[in-house]
C-alpha cells in the first residue's frame, strides 16, 4: 500500500508545480513608448523587482522583461512599476548599521520604482531587503528622493534627519494641508499615500476617496490583509489497512488485514493568516472515523480487530491561486488519535484481547478549492502505532483519504 500511496501523492501534487507559474494580465511599455498587452508572472514581490517574466500569449515560452528594455510594466489594476534613474541612499534604518553622519549617502542608480499615487504629484516606492525608500515628482520634474535617515548624534543617541517633511512643505503643499499635519507625517507607506492623495485632491473637485476614479490618477490598491476564520463540513472516504507484528509468536499472530472501506466526518476550523496575500492558514479538524473491522485466520489462530476513533489533525496549509475562483493547496498536519467504542485487537480461540491505545501520526494533503466554498482533498496518513505500550506486539494503521468540503466564512465582512 505504501508504494501506491506514494505514487498517488506524487501524481496529485504535480499540478502545484504548474500553479506557481501562473501569469496574470498586464502590460509593458518598451523604450519606444509602445504599450504591449501581455501576461506577467506575478511573484507577489516583497522587494521591488529588477526584472520579470512575461508572455505575449499564454501558449508561448516566457520571456525576460529586463530593465534596460522596459520603461514601465503593470499587473492587473493594483501593481504598476516605472523605470527611473534616481539618487538613492542605501544606508539601512537598523540600529546595528547606523552611522554618525546626518547626511544621506546618495548614489545614482537606475531602478524600477513602484507607483503608489499619481496626479499633480506622484509618489514612488522602492524596497530591497530591509531598505525602504520613497520618491516623488511634481509635474515634469525629475523624480527626487524623499530624504529620511536615522543616525547617531554626538552623544551616541539616535537622531533622525526628516528632511522629507521640508521637501513636502516646499514642493507638495496646498491650502488644505496644515503645517502640523506635515510635522506629524511619518515615513510610512500608508501615511505618505494619504498625504499625496490629499494633495492631489486640492487641484479639482475630486475628494480624496474619489481620486482613484479619475483616469488621470492612480492609487495603488493594496489589499489590507485580515485574518479570516472558515468553518468546513468535511465528509470523507478512506482506504485503511492494519499490519500486525507479534515478535513472540510470529506469523500466526502477525496478520496483515486487508484494506477496508471507511467513512469519516469532520468539522474543520481554519484561520487564514493575515500576511503573504492570505496564502497561509492553520487548521484543526476533529474527525469521527467509522470502525475498521478486520478478520484473518492463520492456521488455527483467529485474529480480529475492531477499531474506531476520533482523529484530530492540527496543521498548516499553503494556497496557490489559479484565478479568481480556483485555488489549490498543500497541507501537513500532526494527528492526535483517540480510540472509541471498545477498540481492540482480539484472539477468538484464546478469548483474549489487547486494547487499542491513543497514538499520533502525520497527514499530508493536497487539494483544490472552488469559490472558497467547495473543496476536494487527497490526504495520506502515515503509519500510526495502535499498541504503543506493548513491546511484544505492534499494530500499524495507515490510510488514503479523499475528503469533500463545504466552507462557511465566519469572519465579518
TrEMBL record:
Keywords: Signal. Residues 1-19 form the signal peptide. This is Outer membrane protein beta-barrel domain-containing protein. It comes from Psychroflexus halocasei.
